[in-house]
Amino acid sequence: MQWRLLLFFIFLALSNWATAQRNCGSMDYLEQQIRQNPSRELQLQQLERLTDQFDPVLQKSLSGGVLTIPVIVHVVYGNNTENISDAQVNSQIQVLNDDFRRLNADRANTPSDFRGVAADTEIEFCLTQVIRKATTRSSFGTNDAVKSSGSGGSDAVTPTKAMNMWVCEIGGGILGYAQFPGGSPATDGVVVDYRYFGTTGTATAPFDLGRTATHEVGHWLNLRHIWGDGGCSVDDFVTDTPTAGGPNYTGGACTYPGPNSCTPRGKNGGTDLPDMFQNYMDYSDDQCMNLFTIGQKDRMWAAVSAARPELISATCDGTSPPSPQEICDNGIDDDGDGLTDCADPDCSYASNCAPPAGDCVAPNGLTGQIGKGGRQLTMSWNTADGALSYFVEVLQNGATFASGTVSGTSASVTISKNASYTWRVRSNCANGATSDFAQTSVRTARLASASAQALGVYPNPTNLSEVTVTWNLESTAPALANPVIRESQEDFVNVEVRDFTGRVLQQKKVEDNGQTTLDVTNLRAGVYLLHVRTQDGYGVNTKFVRL
């Protein structure tokens, strides 16, 4: 009997140890796909070649500087516990946006050794639909059953124009898995166990901060594990991540420096650095993760350009309610989690979220204007009731660039060209009270966004030998969420036709009179980028299709 009890407790301890470590199924899933379809490996090799050719400067103008990916969440549940709330779904979308834009609160924990390469990936996510599907299955594996209604799951929806995410119970201790670019659209997307999705409800420590989905979405955008799934001689195809000999299962205090599993570093003769266990693509506990790198950002954008190009023009015209932005005294909390929301997927509600009297209210009406020369950013906002002064902070790539307190409703700061900034302002009220931040973004040294007003191609699509190109490079300073301002008119522009790797296929220099023609006889059928660029480097794109 004593031996049986001992064996039982040993088994229990091993079970608890196993579930306390991150276990991602993406690489096993990829190997399974390659075994079933050997051409899958050739697809990945071609994607690597396109990634090597990708122009990271061009990516900043493909989608106005920021790519927004629509997200469709499938909640596949066998019981009420697995049927997670809308609030939990929204909490995960918020984590993805914070992590990918480097707005995560724990970015301050990034060691100084790595702050120089930590990146705002300029990728965002918007929830467009939540699909709930009851199932008789007790759990799912990594065989894609959850992605098919015929096997108790839920079918993918518009997979080329949105990211599908399935939330369910996954067996075998797997936290989640994702399909790398280039696989079947019917199975494309990310799967996460309901116990490790979001930050509320069923989210379970030490994976309760939403980083499992951040990790798996990284795979979906072609990131490998930071140790390359091998030893020190195997690479993750990113130059600014230190070579690592294996996964780091860090926990507790996340103390840095941690392991230095490969000495010397071995990448381009770089400095010998400890393992970057803070990277979202390691196996650390959620509380230890806090960054993507610039190299990982470029790799993700290359994957979108080469393998997921329809995302560039995808829209977020969904019907699901957005994540609650404010918690109010007179809101509706119908599932007891402290958020104003609607738990039942079939119910509807009207927002009634007015700030209670006496609160310190955040300012609204934020606008940004860049003066002539593109170096002076002037920020302004409306007066907020009860505000005695305002604290203004300007972030560049997620890090504080400038900050200060002002008494009026405007502030100015000198900024750099060719950079993206987020600026935010909060009210300082009586008795030390402060409001939430209100924020917006501004990007310098690019033309107005690639809209029909800025750049047009006619006819588009075309099967003709010639197209007409029109543009409008007027200097503007619009009060938009992401204003993009050019400082002056130029005499000449370069008109270029590029493929999605950034390779220039055709170009001509013309007077900046707003119109020209292009001979497209030699272009094969396909999708191309038309790029109009001024002499000082300002540019704007649009896409056109050759039939």
Q: Return the structural class.
A: alpha+beta
Principal-axis shape equals globular
CATH topology of the largest domain: Collagenase (Catalytic Domain)
Mean pLDDT: 77
- Helical stretch tally: 8
For the secondary structure, the number of strands is: 20
Radius of gyration: 25 Å
Task: Name the CATH homologous superfamily of the largest domain.
Answer: Collagenase (Catalytic Domain)
Strand content is 15-25%
CATH secondary-structure class of the largest domain = Alpha Beta
CATH architecture of the largest domain: 3-Layer(aba) Sandwich
Cα distance spanning the termini: 78 Å
Write the H/E string, N to C: HHHHEHHEEEEHHEEEEEEEEEEEEEEE
Note the main attributes of this structure:
disordered N terminus; Peptidase_M43; 8 helices; Collagenase (Catalytic Domain); metal ion binding; five-stranded mixed β-sheet; zinc; alpha+beta; 20 strands
Kindly describe this structure.
Residues 158-304 form the Peptidase M43 pregnancy-associated plasma-A domain. Residues 457-543 form the Secretion system C-terminal sorting domain. With 547 residues, the chain is of the alpha+beta class. Helices cover 17% and strands 24% of the residues. It folds into three domains: 2-236 and 293-313, Collagenase (Catalytic Domain), CATH 3.40.390; 367-444, Immunoglobulin-like; 455-546, Immunoglobulin-like, CATH 2.60.40. The strands form five sheets. A five-stranded mixed beta sheet has the order 2-1-3-5-4. A five-stranded mixed beta sheet has the order 9-8-11-12-15, with no helix packed on it. β6 and β7 (376-380) form a beta hairpin. The protein starts with a helix and ends with a strand.
